[in-house]
Amino acid sequence: MNAVNDAVGKELPPEVAKQLDEWAASQNLDLDAEFEEEPVTTSTETQKALADKHIVMFNRAGVEPPPGYVYDPSKGNLNDYCTNSPDQFPAPGDNADFSGACAKHDMCYGAHQDPGERVGCNIQLNKDMVHICKSVYPNAADPRRGGCLSTAGTYFAFVTAVHPSQWNPTISG
Fold first, then answer.
1. 143-162 vs 14-26: helix crossing angle, rounded to 10
2. Is 9 left (phi over 0), alpha (psi -120 to 50) or beta?
3. What InterPro entries does this protein's entry cite (predicted)?
4. For the ranges 49-58, 99-108, 134-143, which has the lowest average pLDDT?
């Protein structure tokens, strides 16, 4: 749990840490290993250059950053896609790109200060990431799909652990 606390920048309340640990154990996940990774980002200029060459590196499954979203980590965690976590689920073939889902979540948090309203932001983040995983890896037997859904669940668990007042115990897959 040290990596999770480092990513959050504060100690999680013991009851939240316990719930997160129990959930991770039920998913056969090592949260410390999950959050030791460096964020994966590519500049907009690089993305455009690759697109000009017809190279698709990111598959957001239609979940794009909203108009007006500014990617600038120097402005804080509402401008850095998936804060302290990789923006993509890397896999052979296509990477599932969560940056659009995380950008939508950032903007939702920016628009809603009330914890009750932010529950909806968290639920939508989970729905968007599950949609991305199922769209990028449509075959339910594809192990990349299971890994992607597990990663999406970890991100959702992390967000709700960091903001326990914005928790809704619904994790879908």
1. 170
2. left
3. PLipase_A2_dom_sf
4. 49-58
CA distances, 1 to each of 63, 86, 139, 155, 159 (Å):
30, 18, 33, 14, 14
172 within some domain: no
Is residue 129 assigned to a domain?
A: yes
Number of C-beta neighbours around residue 91 at 10 A = 17
- Which tokens in the block code for residue 149? 């859904």
Helix axes 115-136, 99-111, angle to 10 degrees: 170
Assess if residue 114 is contained within a domain: yes
pTM of this structure:
0.66
pLDDT > 70: percent of the chain: 66
Question: Chain-centre distance of CA 67, in angstroms?
Answer: 19
User: What letters, b where the CB count within 10 A reaches 16 and e where it falls short, cover 51-76?
Assistant: eeeeeeebbbbebebeeebebeeeee
Residue 161: burial class (beta carbons within 10 Å; 0-12, 13-18, 19+): buried
Q: Which domain holds residue 35?
A: 2-166
Count how many domains the chain has. Answer: 1
Please check whether residue 71 lies inside any domain of the structure.
yes
